[in-house]
Amino acid sequence: MLTYRKPLAATALAVAALVATACSPGSDTPASDGGAGGRPAARGSALAAVDTLTVKGRAPKTGYEREKFGRAWADVDGNGCGTRDDVLRRDLTGVRLADGRCKVASGTLTDDPYTGTTVEYVRGRSKVDIDHVVALSDAWQKGARKWDTDTRRRFANDPLNLLAVDSSANRRKSDGDAATWLPPNRAYRCTYVARQVAVKKKYGVWVTGAERDAMKRVLDRCPQQKLP
Questions:
Q1: How far apart are CA 201 and CA 49, in angstroms?
Q2: Where are the alpha helices (DSSP H) in 25-140?
Q3: Which is deepest, 47, 77, 188, 189, by most CB within 10 Å?
Q4: Where is the GmrSD restriction endonucleases C-terminal domain (predicted)?
Q5: Pair 163, 91: CB distance under 8 Å
């Protein structure tokens, strides 16, 4: 009897291992947009960071004005150039300066993060906007109303929260959060949401329940995505 029990036990173990393997989600198989991938969030990942954000309801937009975040595109880093031109020089290729120092006259936004297209920038008739990844009015409704003037000014000019993007896509986004707007360029969504998480974590901006769930749906597809 002992002669037969050993092979049978080994066979049973092999079958169990095959079944377990077949039922485990493969690391190369992304989750659908509508659900979780079933994979644990990597330590230090954007997905794990979502759970560190405060979840609250959206406050009223009452009192919001762009001016509450300081003069637009201030020179907060003291380099003599406004934030808008700093971001254009960072994000565009083939940059030409109008004054030889700060003012970007032209350049190319290669592989626009929101649309995946190439967009030409020409000062004065630009199709490129500088987007606040976390919109100022969204931040106002989720904590910024209670900040001091200096904190709001830093938030509005923080390079972490700024991207040169296609102007049409940016205007469609308006002040939407992850629950109401995502970039049409699906390949950029993980990076985009990770940046939103990083900004909200840095400044203590809260998220709504729907926004948190939307962030997780995107980041479930890329559980190794790091915060920028």
A1: 8
A2: 46-50, 83-91, 136-140
A3: 47
A4: 83-217
A5: yes
For 173-198, the pLDDT digits (tens) are: 999 999 999 999 999 999 999 999 99
What element of type H or E holds 163?
A: strand 162-166
pTM of the model: 0.82
Give the contacts of 35 (CB within 8 A, at least 6 positions apart).
217, 220
Q: Which residues pair with 55 in a beta bridge?
A: 207
**Which 3 state secondary structure label does DSSP give 62?**
coil
Band the pLDDT of 19: cuts 50, 70, 90: very low
Residue 101 · residue 107 · CB < 8 Å: no
Inter-residue contact 97 to 166 (CB < 8 Å): no
Query: Parallel, antiparallel, or unpaired for β 128-132 and 162-166?
Result: antiparallel
pLDDT of residue 38: 54
